[in-house]
Amino acid sequence: MLAFLESVWIVILSLLTGLIFPFNLAVDAIKTSIDKIGVEYPEAALTEKSDYKSPACEVGEKDIFVSIDGDDAMRGKIDCPVATVERAKEIVNGIAGSDPVTIWVREGIYNFSKTLEFTEKDRENVTIRAYKNEDVMFTSGEAITDFEECEVNGVKAFSKDVDGDFNILFNDETSLRRTRYPESGYFFVAKDSPEFVGEYNHTEMHNGFTGMVTKEGDFKDFYNSEDVVIRILHYWKDEMLTVKSFDEATNTVMFSRLSSMSVYEGHKYFLENVFEALNEPGEWYLDKKEGKLYYVPYEDESADTLTLWGSELETMVSIDGVNAIKFEDITFRGNGFNIPLNNTGRDFTQAAFDATPCIKVKNAKNFALTHCEFKDIASCAVFMGVNVQNSSVKYCYFENIGAHAVFIKGENLPIENKTVTRDIDITDNHIYKFGRVFYNAVGILAIHANSVNVCHNEIHDGYYTAISVGWVWGFAYSVTYNNKICDNLIYDIGQGWLSDMGGIYTLGIQKGTEITGNVIHNVAADPLEGGYGGWGIYLDEGSSYILVKNNLVFDCGNQSFHQHYGENNIVTNNIFALSKTSQIIVTKNEGRTEMYLTGNIVVSDKQGMYSRVEKGKFVDNRNLYWDYTMLSNVISFEHDSWDFEEMYGKDAMELKGYMNNAVYMDPLFKDVENFDFTLPVDSEACKAIGFKPFDYSIAGTTVNI
Predict the structure, then answer these.
(1) Residue 343 has pLDDT above 80, yes or no
(2) What CA–CA distance (Å, rounded) separates 197 from 496?
(3) Which of 328, 388, 564, 692 could pair covalently with 129 via S-S, beta carbons 3.0-4.6 A apart?
(4) Residue ranges per domain, the chain?
């Protein structure tokens, strides 16, 4: 990650220039014809996008049927279906041969009280599919009914004795809110407390703390205080800690386990599962000591007719050692998640690696999810691990996901190893509201995998990075290569929660990897003291041999593009526009040519073009620059010494070795104030630098999901 002193400098510079960006990056002036992006797409492109239609249902002789009205003692045919998918799987296992077999599921809600497991003992080449597009839901939620009316904290509430220990509750439409304290905004750690360091790590930021000091009045001796969850948001990590004890005399809170990162003065936090905060409709609290659920109802809800669902089961489907297991047209909803408690070790600090998946796959080829829906998933939705190959997630819709929508995590094996995780397509998916429980989760995360295509996805409304690929720091060996991150539509990312993140984020050497055709905007990091780094495209430590081409990146909280040391990256034919600190930042010189910046259009509105200019970092040639406020050839950038900002004319810049053969002219975008970056036909700007216009309206899904 970006060195701590460098991150501090970014904050200082932002404070000095008044460019810290607010939490809400929405621009009222943005006009949109599709309610998705602040760019007006050409009408012709919009009309070409049609609704996805599943292939026709063709029932085979060996296929099995499941119905909520079925009987597991039956044969499983359309006129005598079985009642459970588990029983259908048993029947399928008795079918000889390896020809494709489909388990057709009829309309209804199917509850999973235990994980549906596929292993090497099971038959391969099996598809579980909704019959004729009927509405089929798989859930692990247990129904809760027969509430009693009561009063809590001065408001009407419903209560119910329950046996479960769940962390998610949902109704017919969505998951419900656990209580939050304060109800909006944050508390802040009162002071640095080195006496609470319980475990030292390799950097000051990664020490494990046993507790923290709060400001007077922020923390109280809450009812069932050991069930209160502390959420600390700092750097690129969000802590999820429970309370061991609270000393009101010293305002000291001790954690039930070590924090994953250091806890310092000014770090923001809030609390969840606080009984005293239960007062708003739709909120709930589980009294684990008494085994009682409390819920504040909406006005139209009645205690004797209300049904809610709570879930404890984390993994609904597990696939290990069997090939060609596929799901089509199925909705997965409402799995649970567990909060790590005492003696479970420290969390890994990066990207919610520890989040348990709803669907877990390893040692499998030809796994596929097609036209499925994931909603109100409390943790990771889909995980593909070691030795997963030739697999796909296509035409799926993800909404209100606790962690990642899709997480691919292989092993960093030699390239020739036959078990390398590879050849995976994550295409044409719509991911909306991810990282809702594990805030530092990534929309689509690929680690130690090659030949992964992440293309034509729409990803928005997340608290951390949208797409991330790589995950070997520096120039060490990495099996990650030949990945394609293309034509994705990414927006409303970060939203001021965490730091050091981007729309697209990479790590390590990645030969053959391409980042092309993406549209990225409204990426914002934590704007408070200590927060930094909301970038559009972020090539982090050691990112090398990557092609960055034909991307439109605009209106980000810091820069549109960030290279934090690497080698031989090609950055060409992109539009970097109107981001809030400058447009391009290049940090940490490792003595290599980090990138070749050629043929790009870079425009600002007095924010500056470059940050962290230093000789030897990169080569630029024949780019177009324009500043809409200054309307001149004067360019702003941070000086080599990193301690002040200066303004230079183009001649001075070229003498310093930057902006070689640069062109300074207005590119004449169609409507830059409303973020329409359409270039005129026969554009003089394009001719001047050899820029080739690209159709950015094709970014996002090719069909309506």
Answers:
(1) no
(2) 28
(3) 328
(4) 99-141+314-464, 144-309, 481-705
Report the pLDDT value the prediction gives residue 606, as an integer from 0 to 100. 80
Q: What CA–CA distance (Å, rounded) separates 573 from 679? A: 13
| Amino acid present at 216 | E
The torsion angles phi and psi of 275, rounded to 5 degrees, stand at: -60, -40
Whole-number pLDDT of residue 24: 28
Distance set, CA 99 to CA 93, 96, 127 (Å): 12, 9, 11
A 10 A CB-CB count for 557 gives 31
132 pLDDT more than 90: yes
Tokens of 226: 């050991």
Distances from the Cα of 163 to the Cα of 287, 306, 489, 635, angstroms: 11, 18, 44, 66
Give backbone dihedrals phi and psi of 143, rounded to 5 degrees, phi first. -70, 140
Q: How many CB atoms lie within 10 A of CB 342?
A: 9
pLDDT of residue 119: 97
Residue-wise over 420-440: b if at least 16 C-beta within 10 A, else e? Answer: bbbbbbbbbbbbbbbbbbbbb
- In angstroms, the CA 55 to CA 563 distance is 44
Check: pTM over 0.70? Answer yes or no: yes
The Cα 278–Cα 157 span in angstroms is 9
Backbone dihedral angles phi then psi of residue 537, each to the nearest 5 degrees: -115, 125
DSSP character at residue 674: G
Percent of the chain at pLDDT above 70? Answer: 88
Question: pLDDT at position 100, please?
Answer: 96
CA 636/CA 291 separation, integer angstroms: 62
Strands 610-611, 584-587: pairing is parallel
Q: Which residues of 591-630 are buried (b: 16+ CB within 10 A; e: fewer)?
A: eeebbebbbbbbbbeebbbbbbbeeebbebebbbbbbeee
Sign of the C-alpha dihedral computed for residues 613, 615, 619 and 624 taken in this order: positive
Closest CA to 84 of 134, 128, 132, 145: 128
- Supply the DSSP symbol for 611: E
* CA 471-562-557 angle, 5° bins: 110
Which bin fits 469, alpha (ψ -120 to 50), beta or left (φ > 0)?
beta
- Within 13 A of 578's CA, how many CA atoms are on the CB side? 17
- Non-local (6+) Cβ contacts of 300 within 8 A are none
Question: Could you tell me if 147 and 159 are in contact, meaning their C-beta atoms sit under 8 angstroms apart?
Answer: yes
Tens of pLDDT, residues 582-634: 899 988 878 888 999 999 999 998 887 888 776 678 889 999 999 888 755 44
Per-residue buried b or exposed e for 305-323, using 16+ beta carbons within 10 Å of the residue's own CB: ebebbbbbbbbbbbbbebb
Higher per-residue pLDDT: 53 or 442: 442
- DSSP string of 534-593, one letter each residue: EEEEEE-TTEEEEEEES-EEE--SS-SEEEESEE-EEEES-EEE--SS-SEEEE---SS-
